[in-house]
Automatic annotation (TrEMBL), chain A:
SUPFAM superfamilies listed in its UniProt record: a domain/subunit of cytochrome bc1 complex (Ubiquinol-cytochrome c reductase), Transmembrane di-heme cytochromes
Organism in which the protein naturally occurs: Geothrix rubra
UniProt keywords, alphabetically: Electron transport, Heme, Iron, Membrane, Metal-binding, Transmembrane, Transmembrane helix, Transport
InterPro entries for the chain: Cyt_b/b6_C, Cyt_b/b6_C_sf, Cyt_b/b6_N, Cytb/b6-like_sf, Di-haem_cyt_TM
Membrane topology: Multi-pass membrane protein
Chief localization: membrane
Identification of the protein by name: Cytochrome bc complex cytochrome b subunit
Transmembrane segments: 31-58, 88-106, 118-138, 184-206, 234-253, 296-316, 323-344
Gene3D superfamilies xref list: Cytochrome Bc1 Complex, Chain C
Lineage: Bacteria, Pseudomonadati, Acidobacteriota, Holophagae, Holophagales
Residue intervals of the Cytochrome b/b6 N-terminal region profile domain: 3-215
Localization in the cell: Membrane
Sequence ranges assigned to domain Cytochrome b/b6 C-terminal region profile in this UniProt record: 215-350
UniProt KW Transport keyword: yes
One Pfam match: Cytochrom_B_C
From TrEMBL, chain B:
Keywords carried by this UniProt record: Cell membrane, Electron transport, Heme, Iron, Membrane, Metal-binding, Transmembrane, Transmembrane helix, Transport
Protein name: Cytochrome c domain-containing protein
SUPFAM superfamilies: Cytochrome c
Residue runs in coiled coils: none
Residue ranges of every copy of the Cytochrome c domain listed in the record: 362-441
Pfam families tied to this protein: Cyt_bd_oxida_I, Cytochrom_C
Principal localisation: membrane
Source organism: Geothrix rubra
TM helices/strands, residue ranges: 15-40, 61-86, 106-123, 135-158, 178-199, 220-237, 261-282, 294-313
Topology with respect to the bilayer: Multi-pass membrane protein
Protein's cellular compartments: Cell membrane
Keyword Transport carried by entry: yes
Length: 350, 451
């Protein structure tokens, strides 16, 4: 009996393949954006794989954290590679997730019946940023320490539960070993537990409703998911793997000096690129705007923008396509300008 | 030294040459591989009376003419401009040493350009037999351009014992890496001919024709995959032992992460080449009908990465020379080092001396002239191989010790001797260089005085 026949008897392989062949993906001039979801998934899988390997050697603790990351980077065989791939894939995952979100937005793929797909995706992006923020502190070097300190200060200014959330994460008045312990728990246990079911829901919804073609596409053309689209998807994954290897081997992730609370913050300290726009906005707003605290106003504005963005399936009733495009374009421009402005402000300072 | 210094901020002149060269090589390799691809495919199509394929070939020939005749030839001229600015001494040496080689190169290049022009514009004007003959002539001329330039490029890495003794042009031309490099490049060029054909074939509307063309094009990539590992081994055995050692030590230290950049880039070449192989097999070969131009573009980008990485690794293998055992990468000849260390660099260097004079001929001005003359060929101040970054944590004593160490050619005394030219200057000039580097990295009027 062949392997195929053996598997077919037990799990219905032929039915599964037949199902995959029947599944179709729209084929049009914007179809290239469909790869972004798969790319984000690929980078996430790389995160899981390398993360599991890092857990084997990583030890949380004020001295242990730094020492273990140092050991991973310089003594454990290929530890430097695993750590670099983990860090680079984290950034690439968020980058492709942002692109994915904007492509879905502009293709109006959040419209009925895909509202839940959009919201679950937004949730995944939020959790992904949480992974990035919590993971950044774990090496416990100078840069990680001060960047996290700034990040928590920014969070504290957020309206409603900002202060409580920051205090809970910090675990005290200042960033310390308790913070490190909590961030590790968040990064390696809490967030994965929240992320995985949400990811499964998102994938199931994508599977159920299929890929949406943008309203401008009137001609109904499609290609079979198996093997045509799957082959292309795998090719893109393979290219992503090349990109990761290129970045990890030519620009391996650095480890700075160990965190020292008494030292002054490095010049030009700033959060990771995905928080840079918020950081820059807070820098631009004066301390007091009328009776309102400037930072509170800034975070409030950002928060309100985020809520408006997330609720787009509710306020875009089909006739507001032009308004939606303008809002999306405005959001993209604001985020890019603030991020570049933020980096220009810290350039050459560290 | 005897020419002005081309100081390119942040990027460095070496990278300007590198970027120009990688683009040119990617295009010119297509010119040679594609040069054979066209008549072979035309002969095949004519033999089988495949009119559809002939129509596609005609479109492909137009693409070929534009890419190689305009972009390829243009970047070729660009290389001459930038290498003459970046390393005039090295270019001068190669021109004087290979007069016959350059003359031959330019003649076959002009013949190549004439042939491809006649080939393209002769589709309707020439008889099929004559048209095909022009195609074969183009293939021969374009391969000859490779055969000639290959002799000069490989000479720079491995001039060989024969040339060292005779200084005869042909001894240098047919040097130890000539043959493996020529065969390797020929195979890579065939592979690139296939990769470029994917681009024009991906949009063929007739799906049967598309499948035929893509599958044939994919076969052009195959010989490179079968033979390159063997030829790579042959090439590796013929490069200088010091360069081999850099790669071998790098491989051994890969697990610990302390391997050289040359090793990293060599590994990237292997990885990107393997990627192309997998994609070509599952794409144009097995799923030709679904193959799109976007995918063809992705294959081309990875091929560009592989080309760039392998050329970069080859360049690095030549360090610290621009022509091994003849001239260092900063243009100082090997036999000049001793005299410069005894008599001084500035007394023997017209432009450096003038530069220092224009700046008041102070100790710092002489140090700066020395920095420009001997360091700027490979280093920038605040970009690639940043001197600012290197000097920032050092005090003046450390800078002096480093410069003193750089004067030695013995790897036991100078840890950089395998990668960097020795400092060809007197001890006093070395002090001036150290003072300049320290002062510039730690600006402030009292920086030197403080120390």
């Amino acid at each position: 009996m062949s392997v195929h026949a053996w598997l077919d008897d037990r799990i219905g392989l032929a039915d599964f393949l037949s199902f995959l062949r029947k599944k179709e993906v729209p084929d049009h001039s914007h179809a290239v954006w469909y790869f972004l979801g798969g790319m984000t998934l690929f980078f996430f899988m790389m995160q899981v794989l390398t993360g599991l390997l890092l857990i084997v050697y990583y030890q949380p603790g004020s001295d242990a954290s730094y020492g273990s990351v140092q050991r991973i980077t310089s003594q454990i065989e290929f530890g430097w590679l695993i750590r670099s791939v983990h860090s680079w894939s984290a950034n690439l995952m968020l980058l492709s997730a942002f692109f994915h979100m904007f492509s879905v937005f502009f293709m109006k793929a959040y419209r009925a019946p895909r509202e839940l797909t959009w919201w679950s995706g937004m949730g995944l992006l939020g959790l992904g940023m949480g992974f990035g923020f919590s993971g950044y502190l774990l090496p416990w070097d100078q840069l990680a320490y001060f960047a996290t300190k700034i990040g928590l200060d920014v969070m504290e200014k957020s309206p409603l539960i900002g202060k409580e959330l920051a205090t809970m994460l910090r675990g005290g008045a200042d960033v310390g070993v308790i913070t490190l312990q909590r961030f590790y728990a968040l990064h390696a246990a809490v967030l994965p537990v929240l992320f995985m079911p949400l990811l499964l829901l998102h994938l199931w919804l994508v599977q159920k409703h299929g890929n949406a073609a943008p309203p401008s596409v009137t001609e109904k053309k499609s290609v079979p998911f198996f093997p045509t689209f799957l082959y292309k998807d795998l090719m893109v994954w393979f290219l992503c793997l090349n990109l990761l290897a290129l970045l990890a081997s030519l620009w391996p992730w650095d480890l700075g000096p160990q965190a020292d609370k008494l030292a002054s913050a490095p010049d030009g300290i700033h959060p990771e690129w995905y928080f840079m726009s918020q950081f820059q906005l807070l820098k631009l707003i004066p301390g007091k705007v009328g009776p309102v605290d400037g930072e509170l106003l800034g975070m409030g504005l950002f928060g309100a923008g985020g809520v408006l963005w997330a609720l787009v399936p509710l306020w875009d009733r089909g006739s507001r396509g032009r308004l939606v495009n303008l809002v999306g374009l405005g959001a993209v421009i604001v985020l890019i300008v603030l991020t570049i402005w933020g980096y220009a402000g810290v350039a050459g300072k560290g | 030294m005897n020419y002005p210094v081309w100081d390119v901020p942040f990027l460095g002149s070496g990278w300007v040459v590198g970027i120009m060269a990688i683009i040119h090589i990617f295009l010119s390799h297509f010119a040679v591989g594609g040069g054979l691809f066209l008549p072979v495919m035309e002969a095949h199509a004519r033999k089988h009376g495949d009119e559809a394929m002939l129509r596609w070939l005609r479109k492909h020939a137009r693409f070929f003419l534009i890419v190689t005749g305009v972009a390829g030839a243009g970047t070729g001229v660009g290389i001459w401009v930038v290498i003459a600015l970046a390393n005039p001494q090295g270019v001068g040496h190669l021109i004087h040493g290979f007069v016959l080689g350059w003359a031959t190169e330019w003649i076959v290049f002009i013949a190549e350009m004439a042939c491809i022009t006649v080939y393209y514009y002769g589709w309707d004007r020439l008889t099929p037999e004559r048209h095909l003959k022009v195609g074969w002539l183009y293939a021969i001329c374009s391969w000859l351009t490779l055969a000639v330039i290959n002799g000069i490029i490989t000479f720079m890495l491995t001039p060989g014992k024969g040339w060292a003794e005779s200084h005869w042009m042909w001894d240098g031309f047919f040097n130890p890496t000539y043959a493996p490099s020529l065969i390797m490049r020929t195979l890579v060029m065939w592979a690139l001919a296939g990769v470029y054909a994917f681009w024009t074939a991906a949009t063929i509307e007739d799906l049967d024709l598309k499948e035929r063309v893509l599958q044939v094009s994919a076969r052009w990539v195959l010989p490179a995959y079968v033979l390159l590992p063997l030829l790579g081994g042959w090439y590796f055995l013929n490069i200088p032992p010091v360069s081999r050692e850099v790669l071998q030590v790098g491989m051994a230290g890969a697990a610990a992460g302390n391997f050289s950049m040359a090793t990293r880039v060599t590994m990237l070449t292997v990885m990107s080449t393997a990627t192309i192989g997998v994609i070509v097999y599952f794409g144009p070969f097995r799923n030709a009908r679904a193959f799109t131009r976007g995918m063809a573009g992705a294959v081309a980008v990875v091929a560009l990465l592989a080309t760039g990485a392998s050329e970069w690794a080859r360049e690095v293998a030549r360090k610290p020379y621009v022509i091994r055992n003849v001239m260092y990468s900063n243009g100082v000849r090997v036999e000049q080092v001793e005299a410069f260390q005894r008599e001084g660099y500035l007394p023997n260097s017209v432009w450096a001396r003038e530069y220092a004079g224009l700046k008041g001929d102070t100790a710092l001005a002489r140090g700066e002239a020395l920095y420009r003359g001997q360091c700027v060929a490979c280093h920038t101040w605040d970009g690639y191989r940043s001197m600012q970054k290197f000097m920032a944590p050092r005090n003046l004593d450390s800078a002096r010790n480093m410069v003193r160490m750089l004067r030695s050619r013995d790897p036991r005394e100078n840890i950089y001797a395998k990668f960097m030219p020795p400092l060809a200057a007197t001890e006093a000039e070395g002090e001036q260089l150290a003072a300049y580097l320290y002062q510039r990295a730690h600006p402030g009027p009292a920086a030197v005085a403080r120390k």
